[in-house]
Amino acid sequence: SLQASSLIHSKGGGLAEATEQLPEFRDVSRELPRTMVALCTCGDKLTQTADLEGVETNVSGLDSVTQVDRIERICTQEGWSQLEERFNGSEANRLLIGACLPYVYTKELRELGKRTGLNPALMEVVDICTPAFPNRNSSPELVSREIRTTVAMGVGKVKGMEPTPPAAIPVNQKALVVGGGIGGMSAALAIADHGFEVNLVEKGDELGGNLRALHRTLEGEPPQELLEQTISRVEKHPNIQVYKEAQVMHSLGRAGNFLTTIEKEDGGAETLEHGVTVLATGGKEATTESYGYGQSEAILTQHQLEDKLHEGSINPEELGVVSMIQCVDSREEPRNYCSRICCSSALKNALYLKDQNPDMDIYVLYRDIMAYGFLENYYTQARQKGVIFIQYDVDDKPRVVAGNGQVSVGVTDPILGREVTIESDLLVLSTGIVPKGQDKMAEIFEVEVDQDGFFQEAEYKWRPVDFLKEGVFTCGIAHSPRSVTETIAMAEATAQRAMRILASDKLTAGAIVAEVRHSLCCLCEKCISACPYGARWRDELEEKVMVNELGCQGCGSCAAVCPNSASVLSGYRDQQMFSVIDAALQDVF
After folding, report:
1. Cβ proximity of 173 and 196 under 8 Å
2. Domain-located, residue 586
3. Is the peptide bond before 334 cis (omega within 30 degrees of 0)?
4. Residue 137 banded pLDDT, cuts 50, 70, 90
5. Which of 110, 370, 417, 431 gets the highest tally of CB atoms within 10 A of its CB?
6. What are the Cα distances from residue 357, in Å, to 316, 322, 346, 365?
7. Which residue, 146, 164, 182, sits at the end of a domain?
8. Which of 164, 185, 212 is the last residue of a domain?
């Protein structure tokens, strides 16, 4: 979809349709609440299992209810049209619908609001069909009472609604990308190809990041060719401004409007205005002192082996035996995670060595082989070419002795049930990946890192490239260890999420946001520390706690910790909730 939209843009098409103007709703703030209640009969299911006439009589007597109608199958087009017609013919300024599956009516309520001129925030749907399910074996009296209570609770809620127009702010349609590796460049290109300006900040003196250290991929693709093409596209792109040898010093703002100060190569500072931020700061190869690393030139890492093979300082034809140890300092304290690419790097180097010298003996000592997906094919190829895989246990790690230009590796073979000693010309360690600079960026942009030091996404399944802070995104190794292909895919996903904001002229707040009743606020700032989204701050000039309505997700943490009800959620005010509770308990006492 990203390539398709980019192609459309290159041919002169727009990224999206023109932004729809917010509908004008009638002002009912000075009117007394007048609620119309519409009950769906759901065919004849409710009439057979409940006393709807009794329900109507009871609901009609509720405060603020001016009209109660029964409608046949509201979920159908005919039923919905009938509902709209009856509401337009009434004097109601609130609407409560008793039907099934309330969540399916969200879109319909928005459309109904546009056609009737009533803010959808003053409309509510409650479930009155579940109590009538045949398999519940409830008496008609109990079903009727449950429906009565449900409707009464809904009436109490809509009666207390105080609709306010959603806050809307203009969007600065520029992006800031921090990090000039393949992830950052791919995200920048994806955004820039859609016509948005991008500022790309790289602290090094050249673009490319970790991709510069790769000379081969497991799939056989030339990474340096990809690198050169990507850098060329970035540096020549009219919508991308590259800042090399620059560092981010400070950032403030919210989704749609950020101000970020960078220190440039000449020592000067520049403030960049942008609407979204992408953090792609990458990672680095982990250092180690395990297995005698640093004590012998015959002990090196997978990355060093690849470099030396590329430089020609190691000749595969002169090697007789090569041993590799996986999960070095990984998947155990203090680095409990798997770097995912170590096994593929070992397979890549092992296959290359076997191609250059088929008579070479290669031993891979592993805990678990992470050859996921189609990488399993390369694992199979390695075994077919004679690479020997020996599993070891974390409580019985390989033992290494270096001397006389060789390395002796001892490991317990689980098949033989005894120790095997491998006299090796080279010992190659797979040391994994660690974060690089995430803590500093997390502090500057007010985002989270996980227990391993990588950037923490808002939700790994539903928002895998977003931070909790709206308008800030991440991609690549900065988020977690991954391959080049996976990094590019994640960068493009990040670009799509970022353009969701950039494509809008204005951003509007959600229907449920927090508010501060300043007359009750004692400035204890408990709500500020409780907000997981960083959507609250103290205005020192005004001496008030303020709410970023676009950043607020309506979770209610601030309202829960406020000692004197100064912090409230729209749609969940105290008196409104008391009315709902009273309705819920009306048949109990």
Report:
1. yes
2. no
3. yes
4. low
5. 431
6. 6, 11, 16, 20
7. 164
8. 164
